[in-house]
Design goal:
Layout (H helix, E strand, L loop, with lengths): L2 E2 L2 H12 L4 E4 L6 H8 L5 E4 L3 H15 L3 E5 L3 H4 L2 H10 L3 E7 L25 E4 L4 H4 L9 H5 L1 H8 L1 H23 L2 E7 L7 E2 L20 H13 L3 E5 L9 H8 L4 E4 L15 H5 L4 H7 L3 E5 L6 H9 L4 E5 L11 E5 L3 H8 L11 H22 L4 H11 L5 E4 L3 H6 L9 E4 L9 H11 L4 E6 H6 L14 E6 L5 H4 L9 H5 L8 H7 L2 E5 L2 H11 L7 E6 L5 H11 L2
Parallel strand pairs: 2-3, 2-4, 4-5, 5-7, 6-7, 9-10, 9-11, 11-12, 12-13, 14-15, 14-16, 16-17, 17-19, 18-19
Antiparallel strand pairs: 1-8
Helix pairs in contact: 1-2, 1-9, 3-5, 3-19, 17-24
Length: about 575
């Protein structure tokens, strides 16, 4: 087996293996050659070559999102690294473990006008769990290179090696920094950045490893809530007649069903879930906006909880956030091992543990259910809203809302659904999904920029067939995602093409102003057909409900290539249909 000669590259690769980081996404370059050679020559790693670093980072995030394990990114020096930033920010706010390995020039070659060189140290400092800036190998620092190395360093080589043991100190310092970064990604669940200076030559190989780094153990300190706080929670819970649980982005199967069943028994408790919550029970309240949108002040006062408990990632529904900020609960508890956002400006307790662990300890201690008509009353509202929802869908014209009705009901059992951001995820929120379908969306920063790349990365390691539903602007923005040799044949994309950013027609603003079409909606006449031909996707389209239903009958069947279905909707009708929907269901 061949290894890179560079000891720093050997150290990184061995420690990634020791931490069981298997998936490595590499973007081409020269400065990162020692890492590329090392990872690609070791059968332990599954390596992917993706040219566009922005797409590569979201692709890596999709893998980590599915596996719940760190995935590594490898890039060359310069602006290549900056293209990772959108995905780094998303991973930071979504608690997804990514390991960024960026090659860099030696310190003495930075800031002198060399090409492909920027200030890479701590470049992600506002959106990273840990930044490790490694030191140049002593072998590189003291090699004979009259063009690059200051003469004083060469003259000191023997003294430094002999008297200070600098080579071993540098190796130990680099090992320590790498271990800290990798452990942080695993334990704290988020992105870390390791910046690695490499000097030429970059392509030398050896038959045997020259360094044997030590992998430091992960700290597994059990987290336990203070008894006083735990008992205080129990006392307050047992007294409250109006309790609400609100669940954001949540990984499937994170909460044992027996605890969900236990929560469902309590008439003093409402559980609001979102499409991305991946929690299901017939007595829970999905489709939050259907409940909240038509309410008046008296209704909001009746819904206002005494205790609000939240867990999971960020919340999609603007309406529930507006409600809870105005009609604040008396108490807000957030359950999460790492972070707690004061989303409603009334956070009182951060219960720092996994939600399943909390319920496992908390629910058996509840001695009685408070007598309350809180949930029964709102269940009657939910039934009325659902009836009006069905009635409305029967009478509307072909539009985005109609597409979601058909597409969501056609998804195969036990499949995975990736949703684009903006209007796509908000339309999906209005429907009760098949509970066997797992749902994912980039809600950390809620950007449209990497939905396709994330979905493809996810599909590569998922055992379930994956479908991406996305809007046209999001799809075209991330079209380089299709420049990818690893897309499974059962991967499916549904592009809802309403010729622009349809959400801006729904949001407040002057839709008749001269600048609206160009600078907000950004209307266009693009189609995905030619992209599909270039990237080897099967392509179909639909412009009517009849055509859509016909296409969906065979769309998910086995094929020899991935498929894309482009559905065209009337640009100026969709907003009217959606806005009238909320009036109708009142």
């Amino acid at each position: 087996m061949l290894y890179p000669k560079n000891p720093l590259a050997q150290t990184l690769i061995q420690l990634c293996k020791a931490k069981n980081i298997e998936h490595i996404i590499i973007s081409p370059g020269s400065r990162n050659a020692p890492l590329t050679i090392g990872f690609s020559n070791d059968d332990f790693f599954t390596c992917y070559s993706i040219v566009d670093e922005r797409c590569a980072a979201f692709f890596a995030m999709g893998i980590a999102q599915q596996l719940q394990k760190p995935t590594a990114l490898v890039c060359t020096s310069g602006s290549a690294l900056l293209n990772y930033y959108p995905a780094i920010a998303e991973a930071y706010y979504s608690q997804i473990p990514l390991v960024v390995l960026s090659a860099d020039r030696p310190k003495h070659l930075i800031g002198i006008g060399d090409g492909q060189t920027i200030n890479q140290k701590d470049v992600f400092k506002n959106h990273i769990l840990y930044s490790a800036n490694l030191k140049l190998n002593i072998d590189d620092t003291f090699k004979n290179n009259d063009d690059d190395e200051p003469a004083i360093i060469k003259s000191l080589e023997n003294k430094l090696e002999r008297f200070l043991g600098i080579k071993q100190e540098l190796q130990q310092e680099n090992e320590s920094e790498i271990n800290k970064a990798l452990n942080k990604a695993i334990q704290k669940r988020g992105p870390v950045h390791i910046n690695i200076p490499f000097d030429e030559p970059l392509y030398e190989l050896v038959d045997n490893l020259t360094v044997k780094p030590k992998s430091s153990l992960l700290e597994n300190k059990p987290i336990k809530i203070d008894d006083y706080i735990f008992n205080e929670c129990l006392e307050e819970w047992n007294q409250a007649s109006k309790k609400m649980i609100l669940v954001g982005v949540n990984h499937p199967d994170d909460i044992d069903q027996k605890w969900l069943n236990e929560l469902a028994k309590d008439n003093s408790l409402i559980v609001f879930t979102e499409t991305t919550s991946n929690l299901h029970h017939e007595s829970f309240f999905p489709s939050i906006d259907k409940i909240i949108a038509p309410l008046d002040d008296d209704d909001f006062t009746a819904l206002q909880p005494d205790i609000l408990v939240t867990f999971g990632g960020l919340i999609v529904s603007k309406k529930v956030k507006a409600f809870l900020r105005k009609y604040k609960p008396k108490q807000h508890w957030h359950i999460d091992e790492h972070t707690a956002n004061d989303t409603f400006f009334c956070l009182e307790k951060h219960l720092q543990m996994h939600p399943n662990t909390f319920f496992e300890n908390f629910l058996p201690e509840i001695t009685h259910f408070v007598k309350s008509d809180y949930k029964p009353y709102w269940e009657s509202i939910k039934r009325t809203r659902t009836e009006k929802h069905v009635e409305y869908l029967k009478q509307i014209p072909f539009s985005d809302l109609k597409i979601f009705e058909n597409v969501l009901h056609s998804l195969p059992n036990d499949s995975a659904l990736q949703l684009g951001n903006s209007s796509t995820v908000r339309y999906a929120q209005l429907f009760d999904l098949n509970k066997t379908v797992q749902v994912f969306c980039n809600r950390g920063t809620s950007g449209i920029d990497g939905s396709t790349s994330t979905a493809i990365g996810f599909s590569v390691v998922s055992e379930k067939q994956t479908t991406l539903i996305t809007g046209d602007l999001s799809f075209f923005y991330d079209s380089n995602a299709l420049w990818n040799n690893y897309i499974p044949n059962d991967f499916r994309i549904i592009v809802i093409n309403n010729q622009g950013g349809g959400i801006f027609r729904i949001l407040p603003g002057n839709k008749n102003a001269d600048y609206f079409d160009t600078y907000f909606e950004t209307s266009h006449n693009l189609t995905a057909k030619h992209l599909c031909k270039m990237y080897g996707f099967e392509y179909d389209s639909a412009s009517t409900e009849k055509q859509l239903k016909l296409q969906l009958k065979t769309f998910f069947q086995a094929s020899e290539a991935p498929k894309l279905l482009e559905v065209f909707t009337p640009r100026t009708v969709n907003d009217e249909v959606l806005l009238e929907y909320f009036n109708f269901i009142k």
